[in-house]
Amino acid sequence: MPRNLLYSHLSSHLPHFRTSVTSAKVAVNGVQLHYQQTGEGGHAVLLLPGMLGSGETDFGPQLKNLNKKLFTVVAWDPRGYGHSRPPDRDFPADFFERDAKDAVDLLKALKFKKVSLLGWSDGGITALIAAAKYPSYIHKMVIWGANAYVTDEDSMIYEGIRDVSKWSERTRKPLEALYGCSLTVSPGWNAVA
């Protein structure tokens, strides 16, 4: 069977489902939180970005490629990051706990009964705290790049990455597009690390 005929035959037998990504904001805990949502599956998954990241910068491939028939995928921008500004990001001593509450409350506002979490870096820390504080609400987790404590060596590394101009173009450009060319790493971020 010729390739284009095979594709036509296969695609006519594949189930159709929503592939578009919805982008919106919702009021949660006194701020407007931005999120993107796609898919119609029964398994809800929240994507939690790392420091400075957003749903679109940290999880573009997952928003595009996770199975939309099996999953409903939500990628959020924590308060002060991405499109969840204003307010600007601040770093009180309990900011990870605040982010965990915001994340769970966002998903409850979106009417999800139970969710799984995919957390990267600071988003991984937030996901771990969310699972500890709201265990009956969290189904499963995938965490990578998270830390449980910060060593003196980690603090020196954090200081070293404060100068954004030294970051690779691949890392820096999407964040500059989101935040503008005046992208900086807050001194407060390292103070709590």
From TrEMBL:
Residue ranges of domain AB hydrolase-1 in the record: 44-172
MF term (GO), any: serine hydrolase activity
Residue stretches spanning the membrane: none
Classification via Pfam families: Abhydrolase_1
SUPFAM superfamilies the record matches: alpha/beta-Hydrolases
Protein name: Biphenyl hydrolase like
